[in-house]
Every structure is written in C-alpha cells, then in structure tokens.
C-alpha cells in the first residue's frame, strides 16, 4: 500500500506495526476484551498475530500510536482488513479493533488512528470505512459521531461460530 508508513501529529507518532509490536498489541487486545466484558474470548496467540500481520501474504494490517518512540510505549492500535462491496465494485476497509489505553485517552490518539485509516481509504480508492461498536460504549459513539460516522441501524450482525459453524460446514459437499 503506498500510504506512508508513518505520520506525526500533536498526538504522537502513528506508524504501521512492526513484528516487535506484537506482544504489546496482543496485551492491548486483552485490555480491550476486558473493557468490552469479553475477556474469556480473547484467546489469540503471538504466533497467530505474527502470521496474520507479517506472514507471506498478510490480509490483516495494523497501525500503532507510539506515544514515546524513545521508550517504545504504545498508547493504542488499530487493526483492519479489506472487504469488498459488490454494489460499489471496490474494496472497503473494515476496522476490526481500535483501542487506546485509558491513561492516553482524551489526547486525540483515537481520532488520529481513524484519520490515518481514512487516508488509507482515500489513497487506495476504497469505497467505504466501516466498523462495529458496542451500543453501550458512549465514549466511542461520541468520537465516531464527531468524525461524521453514521450508525447503520437497519442492519443486524449475524454470526455462526463454534458447533453451529461445524454443523453448517457438514452440510456442504466437496470443495
């Protein structure tokens, strides 16, 4: 992707994640899971993150906020991947997770990450930038409204996982 690997702002250095960031990103994923009251579901391993973000053909990408590049302190991260709109005929960007550590909130880091991802979309010609947010997360909803994000209330999220996924797959013929 031709989008710059780094950007500076009054809020810190936003840069693409590097392999050495995986441990701290994974720690923040677990902090996010605790905040969202879903800690038991955060079971990803460093090996899985390395493969997803830095394997031979990564389909997942990440930016981090480096609050103090000298100390290597990460204040937050955003993990995203591409989707595709059959209606628009172009890719979109799906934000899987955005997290700013509590000690760093209110300093513009979240908006900085969102702006960086919007720039990726514009630079690459993607048609949209989407994500989910828990309906009780008023702080996040306020930030998203302030940048022009619009809730898509007419849609519901559907998921098949666990045994239901295995059972559904068993209905398929050979691929």
TrEMBL record:
<dbReference type="Pfam" id="PF00583">
    <property type="entry name" value="Acetyltransf_1"/>
</dbReference>
<protein>
    <submittedName>
        <fullName>Unannotated protein</fullName>
    </submittedName>
</protein>
<dbReference type="GO" id="GO:0008080">
    <property type="term" value="F:N-acetyltransferase activity"/>
</dbReference>
<keyword id="KW-0012">Acyltransferase</keyword>
<comment type="similarity">
    <text>Belongs to the acetyltransferase family.</text>
</comment>
<dbReference type="InterPro" id="IPR016181">
    <property type="entry name" value="Acyl_CoA_acyltransferase"/>
</dbReference>
<dbReference type="InterPro" id="IPR000182">
    <property type="entry name" value="GNAT_dom"/>
</dbReference>
<dbReference type="InterPro" id="IPR051016">
    <property type="entry name" value="Diverse_Substrate_AcTransf"/>
</dbReference>
<keyword id="KW-0808">Transferase</keyword>
<feature type="domain" description="N-acetyltransferase">
    <location>
        <begin position="12"/>
        <end position="172"/>
    </location>
</feature>
């Amino acid at each position: 992707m031709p989008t710059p690997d780094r950007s500076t702002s009054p809020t810190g250095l936003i840069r693409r994640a590097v392999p050495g960031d995986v441990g701290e990103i994974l720690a923040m994923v677990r902090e996010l899971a605790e905040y969202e009251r879903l800690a038991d579901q955060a079971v990803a391993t460093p090996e899985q993150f390395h493969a997803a973000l830095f394997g031979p053909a990564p389909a997942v990408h990440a930016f981090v906020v480096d609050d103090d590049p000298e100390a290597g302190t990460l204040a937050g991260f955003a993990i995203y991947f591409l989707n595709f709109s059959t209606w628009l005929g172009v890719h979109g960007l799906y934000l899987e997770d955005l997290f700013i550590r509590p000690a760093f909130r209110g300093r513009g880091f979240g908006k900085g990450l969102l702006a960086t991802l919007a720039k990726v979309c514009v630079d690459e010609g993607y048609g949209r930038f989407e994500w989910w947010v828990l309906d009780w997360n008023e702080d996040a909803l306020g930030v998203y409204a302030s940048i022009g994000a619009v809730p898509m209330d007419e849609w519901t999220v559907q998921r098949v996982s666990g045994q239901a996924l295995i059972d559904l797959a068993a209905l398929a013929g050979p691929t």
